[in-house]
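In response to the reviewer comment on reproducibility (Comment 2.3), we provide here a single inverse folding case reported in full, input and output, so that an independent group could reproduce the run without further information from us. The structure tokens appear first.
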């Protein structure tokens, strides 16, 4: 089965703002497919195809990851591979500046060097460290992003649109859990099923 580890975006006010943006941008992006708000997430690690014989080892490994609750600010807009020829449009995440240093686990407003949340990056590294012994290694550097559009049509340039929304802030999401998910690809979009949930220790 295809599987991945992810943090879901669940804050209602954030989802409302993202849906409003999708509606506005969708008028200009003919042929772009918006991601359903109910499945928006930040992938901590994509595992690809996991044999049934190994899934319990993966569940045990992911369950062993320990982390503390933290907050991130969902903000910014970007595109893969770039705005001149986008295949996907995403919202980002950055750490919420702490009034008590870094004691709340938010990273004190720091980034990971890629302009995204260091706290999420640290969590992704913990997940990666847990999965390495069972044979699942990270294949690329983690950058916090959640896809809100997929684009199949070629020749769309959204550079100006990205500039207009580059500093857009959607709100603060508390990270209290992450999930191992099964993904089934269908003509109408992916279907996700939760396989396990890991809750913050505090």
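Designed residues, in position order:
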């Amino acid at each position: 089965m295809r599987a991945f580890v992810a943090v879901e975006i669940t804050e209602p006010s954030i989802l409302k703002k993202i849906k409003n943006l999708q509606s506005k941008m969708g008028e200009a992006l003919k042929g772009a497919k918006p991601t359903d708000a109910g499945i928006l997430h930040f992938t901590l690690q994509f595992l690809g195809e996991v044999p049934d014989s190994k899934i319990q080892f993966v569940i045990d490994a992911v369950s062993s990851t320990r982390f503390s609750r933290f907050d991130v600010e969902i903000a910014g807009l970007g595109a893969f591979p770039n705005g001149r020829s986008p295949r996907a449009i995403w919202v980002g995440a950055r750490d919420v500046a702490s009034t008590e240093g870094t004691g709340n686990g938010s990273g004190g407003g720091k980034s990971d060097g890629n302009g995204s949340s260091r706290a999420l990056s640290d969590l992704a590294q913990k997940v990666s460290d847990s999965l390495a012994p069972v044979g699942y290694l990270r294949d690329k550097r983690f950058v916090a992003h959640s896809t809100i559009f997929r684009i199949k049509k070629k020749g769309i340039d959204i550079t100006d649109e990205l500039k207009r929304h580059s500093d857009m802030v959607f709100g603060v999401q508390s990270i209290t859990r992450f999930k191992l998910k099964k993904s089934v690809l269908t003509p109408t979009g992916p279907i996700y099923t939760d396989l396990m949930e890991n809750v913050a220790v505090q």
